[in-house]
Task: inverse folding
């Protein structure tokens, strides 16, 4: 088991739109207040992409930084996976658009839809392809223009979400016992009704009725989603440590999906992880869906003191529409 080929994160990049939508701005749009939003979510502002641009626009820019940091050309990529629920269009995939835009001529790829767990599902999928020996360099992107699906008269959803993208480059780790060591992923379609976009698919294609009914906006049963997220994100984070013989004391950083401060705090408490080991940036960016975890990882690696070094354990965790949830265990390795 220890000698198997694993994948490690060689490089990372991100893109954040310039426009900031603050809580004060939202106070002018809906019946809410800065105090209400901060106390219930921890969010102060979020980024919003300029109209007329799309998921691929952000993905390209995050990819450019990622590859530049690694000194890798797009032509060297074997695989592209884009985690997103807001593709530019139903087809072709964002991965196809990105492949063409950056000139990754030999790469194949696809989009992966798993809500806010999209990056973790994509990361684990790419890692397994690297483990198989069929792929040597894989680009994994989390990119979502979730503002395109938000009703800014619905205070239950408009205060939560923001736009952003981040990309990582995965390669084969040449030293046993490092890289992405384990993942713990789950879905439960029985909870799909709690967080969804009802219109726009083959079941409810766009029509005057679906538009008038607001079916193309995000619908969320906040209480049901919160209850499941607190339980399941905590469970998978604890489980991945236990089955690898670790405890919270062994973890250098916990990098959770940025949906709600209370969900993050509950998971960290269950794991026995100190506050200073938990990466939280929800106050600045809100819930950026598939981009949430890699944006937090970017911050941990490049913008904070005491970044991970060789041998450090990192746990990534997420919960999203589907319902989907999961965790991954990384042991940091650098080439």
Result:
């Amino acid at each position: 088991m220890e000698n198997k080929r694993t994948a490690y994160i060689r490089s990372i990049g991100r893109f954040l739109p310039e426009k900031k939508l603050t809580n004060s701005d939202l106070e002018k749009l809906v019946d809410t207040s800065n105090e209400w939003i901060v106390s219930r979510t921890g969010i102060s502002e979020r980024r919003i992409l300029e109209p007329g641009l799309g998921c691929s626009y952000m993905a390209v820019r995050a990819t450019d930084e990622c590859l530049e940091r690694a000194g890798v050309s797009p032509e060297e990529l074997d695989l592209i996976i884009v985690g997103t629920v807001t593709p530019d269009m139903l087809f072709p995939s964002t991965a196809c658009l990105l492949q063409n835009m950056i000139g990754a001529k030999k790469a194949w790829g696809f989009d992966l839809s798993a809500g806010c767990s999209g990056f973790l599902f994509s990361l684990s999928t790419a890692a397994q392809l690297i483990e198989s020996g069929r792929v040597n360099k894989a680009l994994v992107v989390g990119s979502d223009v979730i503002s395109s699906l938000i009703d800014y008269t619905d205070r239950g959803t408009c205060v939560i979400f923001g736009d952003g993208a981040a990309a990582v480059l995965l390669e084969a780790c040449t030293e046993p016992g490092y890289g992405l060591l384990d993942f713990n992923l789950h879905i439960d379609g029985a909870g799909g009704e709690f967080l969804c976009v009802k219109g726009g698919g083959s079941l409810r294609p766009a029509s005057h009725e679906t538009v008038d009914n607001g079916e193309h906006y995000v619908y969320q049963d906040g209480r049901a989603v919160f209850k499941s997220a607190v339980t399941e994100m905590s469970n998978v984070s604890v489980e991945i440590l236990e089955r690898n013989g670790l405890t919270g004391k062994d973890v250098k950083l916990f990098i959770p999906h940025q949906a709600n401060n209370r969900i993050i705090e509950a998971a960290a408490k269950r794991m026995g992880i100190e506050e200073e080991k938990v990466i939280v940036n929800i106050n600045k960016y809100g819930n950026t869906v598939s981009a949430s975890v890699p944006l937090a990882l970017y911050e941990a690696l490049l913008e904070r003191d005491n970044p991970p070094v060789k041998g450090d354990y990192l746990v990534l965790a997420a919960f999203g529409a589907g319902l989907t949830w999961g965790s991954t265990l990384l042991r940091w390795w650098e080439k």
Remarks:
- The radius of gyration is 19 Å.
- The CA atoms of residues 110 and 294 lie 18 Å apart.
- The first helix runs from residue 23 to 27.
- The mean pLDDT is 96.
